[in-house]
Specification:
D-Maltodextrin-Binding Protein, domain 2; 5-stranded mixed beta sheet; alpha/beta; single chain
């Protein structure tokens, strides 16, 4: 009689292969790394193959393991989606969306209610990231990112451009007469290299390298401006509420192209109908916004 597949071992392998780490897999499964390692050994013995090449500080899938992982990942993802559809005692379609935080707070959250009204059977699971995302590893249907749109492993559709401009507190704005005056003020920086230098160049000023604290979120920079002062170079479209309320001011009209917001999704995965629905809705909303 053929033995049943060792479900616990298969789940341990899928998590370890997705993270390429026994430690992270163990954390996800609420077990120890030793327990994950043991389950991997059981699976290797059952199948008669080696699943991982153990490097000095990392794991690498063997060719056989890569094939096994592809099928298991989709299978477990399907099971999870079916389970979530029936949570709460009623049937719902589940859509997992990864999103850079600035876009989620500055644009998406004000519109998601309209999508839910149009499609009450869809349960959107929103996960915030700082623009670093792995769609397959995180089990996402779609991800919204900021940048150039050059990500080879995904299909990338532009949502809209997002020119950067300077925002500061009203008190600082009263002191500024020309762009160069900003050099006497506290300038907040993001992880994007040379953006301030690019902005000053667009404004007709040649300046040395800007130094100071680096933030990984435009939203955090604007909150710092509001509560502690300073000037930040941010995507202006994401902060219309703060501008309208007078919490921040745009002291100069100069803008610089730092990138765009993009809707990204896996090239290898077939897009489910609910994902197609959300994609069409999002891109339609973006056209209205433009």
């Amino acid at each position: 009689m053929r033995k049943k597949p060792p479900l616990k071992a298969l789940k341990s392998f899928e998590a370890a292969a997705r993270h390429l780490s026994f430690t992270r897999a163990a954390k996800e499964l609420f077990v120890t790394p030793a327990a994950v390692s043991q389950q991997i050994r059981i699976l290797e013995e059952r199948l008669g193959i080696t699943l991982f090449r153990r490097q000095s500080r990392s794991l690498e899938l063997t060719e056989e393991a890569a094939i096994l992982y592809g099928g298991l990942h989709e299978a477990f993802r399907t099971i999870e989606n079916i389970y979530h559809k029936f949570e709460g005692g009623e049937y719902k379609e589940v859509l997992s969306l990864g999103c850079v935080g600035t876009f989620a707070l500055g644009w998406l959250e004000a519109r998601l209610g309209r999508f839910q009204t149009l499609h009450p059977h869809v349960d959107v699971r929103l996960r915030i990231n700082n623009n670093i995302v792995n769609i397959a590893a995180e089990g996402l249907d779609l991800a919204i990112r900021f940048g150039t749109g050059i990500w080879p492993s995904t299909n990338n559709e532009k949502i809209f451009d997002a020119p950067f401009g300077v925002l500061c507190d009203p008190e600082m704005a009263g002191r500024l007469r020309a762009p160069r005056d900003l050099l006497n003020e506290r300038l907040l920086r993001s992880y994007r290299i040379n953006e301030w230098e690019d902005w000053f160049r667009e404004a007709g000023e040649d300046v040395a390298v800007i130094s100071g604290t680096v933030y990984d979120s435009s939203g955090l920079m604007i909150q710092t401006v509001i509560h502690s002062g300073g000037a930040a170079l941010v995507p202006l479209k994401m902060f219309t509420r703060e501008l309208t309320s007078g919490q921040v001011v745009q002291p100069f009209e100069t803008e610089v192209n730092a990138g765009s917001y993009w809707l990204t999704y896996s090239k290898s995965r077939i897009m489910r109908p609910v994902v197609k629905t959300f994609r069409s809705w999002l891109l339609s909303e973006a056209l209205l916004f433009e």
